[in-house]
Amino acid sequence: MYFCRLFVMQKIKHFMQKQRKRILLFVVIPLLILTGIFSIRGLDPVETIPEEKKQPVKDLSHILERGVLRATTDYNSTNYFVYRGEPMGFHLELLKLFASHLGVELEVTASNNLEDNLSCLLFEEECDVIALDLTVTRSRSRFVNFTEPHSQTRQVLVQRKPGDWFNMRSSEIEDHLVRSQLDLAGKTIHVQKNAAFISRLNHLMEEIGDTIYLVEREEEVEQLIEMVANGEINYTVADEQLARVNQNYFASIDVRTPLSFYQNLAWAVRPGADELSEAINEWMREFKKTRQFANIYNKYYNNPRSVYIAKSPYNSLRGGNISAYDHYFKQYSEIVGWDWRLIASLAYQESRFNPSAVSWAGAFGVMQLMPGTAQMYNVGPESSVPEHIVAGVSYLNWIESVLENYIEDERERVKFVLASYNVGLGHVLDARRLAEKYGKDPNIWKNNVDYYLLNKSKPKYYLDPVVRYGYARGSEPYHYVYEILERYEHYLNALEG
To answer: Could you list the active site residues?
Structure first.
């Protein structure tokens, strides 16, 4: 229940903040920026912000002090998605590696609306970096600092092959396709609203001396590509690397007609964040030379399994599911009153959704119940997956009922519950007693109780007189809590409640 309320309240708060700031900034500033009016009229978006609203730029030192890098990206089949419960994506992997390089944690939000991404960076300052395939242009360089390019691409026309193309010779197919940019005269092209493609098509009209009819759409690029494949529209434009990936899904589309020269794709930081910009540049320049970068790039852009992954019902972009057991997580989450996606994240951590999984300690099933715990709820290895999930969630509810006598804050309490599910309630209560003895808050997890659970394998702590349950290998539950909560945030980004 708490996490459902938390998610709704966060969305409402975010919406209200966004509306207030847009009103303060005359509402239309982000749109003016994106359409290039600032550069045309010689305006500077930073100068447009009222003096009393300007704040010191949050640079690298602030991020290191905070201990968290906040990034925004977009959803698509290469950048950011969830597949079989695992958050994945080219930019997500790069962000994780860069955050690790800095020695900080990573928080990711996602939106396919570039205006929202820019607003997050420039006006709301809720993120430090836009990490996606952002085309480097002169007009955009007036209001963001681009980083070292992570890759290059060119814009291509996405068009549909003739209906019976599979029975035709290549030369016959070519007769039906647009290959010369001159042949775009009089054509209608549907493009994502505020995309860099619009500027290029406007320039192309000047170059060919004729009209191309542009229709700006709310749909994002991959949705428009699918509409071309389905015959709903005739043409759209996409970056070549994304278009080639989608050609693997839709054999009926053609993406071989270029509309631009190759362009740099980069991340962006806010003007004045020079230390962060230089840190990214230095890291990106060196990382691009490594085999690891090549492997990550090929994983998402040159992967023969990409068709299978994209069409899987357990891909958040198309299937919209985390696992085959989402229905049960949703149904039985009411037992404990948690968001079903949090329970799914726990189950992924425990078993990767494998009902046949058995641990070295004898835990079994999707929820990895220990035999003693399973016996309390009358289930065994032979029981069904729904019965295992009911038992696991009921056990969570029991732990919750005990800990609510100690910890009032629901958001804090869930961390104690997760740790208890992994290592046992007794060890978590021991860690609370140690925290209290050493002057820490026993009701706060991070940098308080988690420290003593992490170190409960050391004699200084497990032999302490306040400890009742002895030795524990604390590193496992310590990481267990943070990994589940981090994955849960990705589930919130990618899947509806």
So the answer is: 350
